[in-house]
Amino acid sequence: MSGWILASLGLMPTLLAAVVMAGRGAIPGRLVAVQLALSTTVFLLMLLEFAFRQSSSLDLALALAFLGLPGTLVLVLFQERWL
Amino acid sequence: MNLASACLLAFAVLMAWIATLAFLRLRTPFERLHVVTFFNIVTGGAATAAVIAADGFTQRTFKCLLIWLAMVGAGALLSHATARALHLRGGERL
Questions:
Q1: Do residue B24 and residue A47 have CB atoms under 8 angstroms apart?
Q2: What are the Cα distances from residue B77, in Å, to A30, A55, B1, B37?
Q3: What is the ipTM of this complex?
């Protein structure tokens, strides 16, 4: 098992904790947990590309990094005005 | 994979776990925003450095560098926007 796979597995608990925290508690806490889950997913996809030599996952990480900004901003705006 | 990239990967995972523990330990969303920034800069930086140490400067390592810079830049903006939104809502449901 390569170091990339081990590192990817090591990041899984972080992602799991962020996803669990995004599903419970007050809405502001969930919003921050979503941001942590987004960051973890991006770097996890980055490591998976080196683990499995599949270039599409790096493009997916790049797209997620750039689309995460407007997506989270919409969530923040929704939280600020209506929730 | 060489020794430098293995050490950097281990450091990245260790920092990710520390960030997770801090996220679970801290109570308010304002405190937790610091954890997200820490994760973006330290874990992302170490993972990107590991990629560069393993592959050198290739097309995909430049992509990884771009991803890290995007996450750091977007993270700063999102932290500000989130803190502002929470502050405007008065923090009554923190």
A1: no
A2: 18, 28, 34, 11
A3: 0.89
